[in-house]
Structures are given as C-alpha cells and as structure tokens.
Amino acid sequence: MCSLHDRVIVIEDDLDTSVGFLAYLNSALARYEQHERVMQVSGHCFPARGFETSEGCSFLPFTTTLGWGTWARAWRHFDWDMTGIEEVYTNSELRRRFEIDGAYPYLRLLKRLQSSRESYRSWGLRWHWSVLKRDGVVLYPHRTLVSHFGSDDTGTNVRGVQLPVDVLFERRNQIREWPKVVAVDMRFYAAVRRYLAAQQSLWSRGHRFLRRVLLRPWQ
User: Fold this and answer.
1) 43-81 per-position pLDDT tens digit
2) Domain coordinates of the chain in residue numbers?
3) What's the predicted TM-score (pTM) here?
4) Looking at the DSSP assignment, which residues form a beta bridge with residue 40?
C-alpha cells in the first residue's frame, strides 16, 4: 500500500473510531510528511491525567498498533529481523527506553518472541524496535479517537480478560493544537507512563491471584 500511495492508515476490525478520526489522521500525515523523525501517527491514546480536556496532541517515543498511519519513507525502516536487538540485554539505558521506563513489559515479550518454543509473530514489537533504534517519535492525541474492544475471547492475541473500553473523544474537529516542535512532550509522556505502569501492576497482581487460586491442586 505504501508503494502505491506513499502513505497508509491502518484500522483493524476490533476498533471503534470517533467521527473525526480520519480527518485527524489525514491532517497529521500531511503536516508531518517531511519530518523524518516522525515515523507514525496514532489515533489511539491511553488515559493521561491532566489532559482530560485537552484538544491537542503530542509526540511520544513509542509506537502503537491501535488505529494509526505512516508513510513509505518511515515504513521502509521496518526491520522484521530486529537487527541489533541484543543490545537491550547489555545496555541499561536502551533497555529503559525499550520498556518505557519499566511501564510496559517489552523485554518479556522479546524473550517470548526469541524463544524457540513460541510461535509469537508480533509485528508490533518489531515496529517498536524499528522506530526506537532510529530515535523516532509518534504523534498521539491527548484524548483517544480509537476504542479497542478485541480483548475478549474473539481476539487472536488477548484472551480471557476484558480490558477497559476507551471513551472516545467525539467532537468532529478534535485536534485544535499541534506541537510547535518535533520533540517528546515529557509531561504527556509521564502521564501516559503512569497509566501504563498502573495497568501493568494490576495485570500482574491479577495473574498472581489466578495462579494461586485457580491453578493450585484440588484439596
């Protein structure tokens, strides 16, 4: 698709989008077409405390798989082989960035991908590494324009648990404020990171409970 049209918008079949989703994505793709460091534009975002009424968007240093767009110039750097990924095991600073300051278990997913016992084919993890190693950034709206409902038993990658459904920002012309410079918004990054870290903590405690209660031998 990139070779035919030079850009692409990806919407999977377990997503709902707001009324202004396509207008925002197309505007962002046009606005940042010539900015090499911008490698993806996202329609989805996690809740960020302090940005509940914002009509803006910001750059973050990690990718998304939920309703997004990119250009041929960026996608040509997609590295299926994850060249150089071994460095995350020896370089603590790189590992910190790879795991979003410990807020998301990308290292655990990497080990799963590299295990010969698993048939884990995540393109999302490979794209995350492809953007990270080029110091790329991704544009995110402060309030999500995409809601994901595929975390039930009908999905491929997440089964047996229903994650919170995002509340869509439904105003037709949502984004009124665009970043003045192409750089990570550290305040927005901190707010999103806190949410991701809290979700991972809840997820981890839930799994420990299930292992302890549901998987123990019958007495």
Assistant:
1) 999 999 999 999 999 999 999 999 999 999 999 999 999
2) 2-77+134-214
3) 0.84
4) 138
Q: Which residues contact 84 (CB under 8 A, 6 or more apart)?
A: 133
Q: Which tens digit of pLDDT belongs to each residue from 85-109? A: 999 999 999 999 999 999 999 999 9
pLDDT score of 212: 41
Interatomic CA distance for residues 206 and 201, integer angstroms: 9
Angstrom distance (rounded) from CA 100 to CA 94: 10
User: How long, in residues, is the chain?
Assistant: 219
Q: Which two tokens stand for residue 20?
A: 């202004």
3-state secondary structure of 61: coil
Taking the CB of residue 142, how many other CB atoms lie within 10 A of it?
A: 24
Structure tokens at 58: 């910001």
Q: How far apart are CA 35 and CA 43, in angstroms?
A: 18
Q: Which H or E element spans position 147? A: strand 146-148
State the DSSP string of 61-112: SS---SSEEEEHHHHTT--TT-TTGGGGGT-HHHHHHHTTTTTS-HHHHHHH
Contacts of 157 (CB under 8 A, 6+ apart): 122
Q: What is the pLDDT of residues 161-213, one digit of tens each?
A: 444 445 565 555 678 899 999 999 999 999 999 999 998 877 555 444 334 43
Structure tokens, 167? 């509340």
At residue 78, what are phi and psi to the nearest 5 degrees?
-60, 125
CB atoms within 10 A of CB 27: 15
